[in-house]
């Protein structure tokens, strides 16, 4: 999968997840996924085992 296909996949997934949700629910999900990504990145650079 090239980078453009990956971006398209992520955008489509975000639209699917957001469908039928309130703005507050979408904000909560966005915050959750940002925290998840940041934590994974932190674990990656600290050689988490």
**General shape:** flat
Number of helices: 2
Query: What class would the helix/strand composition place it in?
Result: mainly alpha
Averaged pLDDT, please? 95
Question: Ranges with pLDDT <50 over ≥5 residues?
Answer: none
| Spatial separation of the terminal alpha carbons | 28 Å
Biggest sheet character: none
Strands, count: 0
Proportion of residues in extended strands? under 5%
| Share of helix, binned | over 70%
Radius of gyration, Cα only, in angstroms? Answer: 14 Å
User: Topology as H/E string?
Assistant: HH
Explain this structure to me?
The protein has a domain of 28 residues. The chain has two helices and no strands. The protein has 49 residues and is mostly helical. The mean pLDDT is 95. 80% of the residues lie in helices and 0% in strands.
Q: Could you write a compact summary of the structure shown?
A:
The protein has 49 residues and is mainly alpha-helical.
Architecture blueprint of SSEs:
Layout lengths: L2 H16 L4 H23 L4
Descriptive key words:
2 helices; mainly alpha; 49 residues; single chain
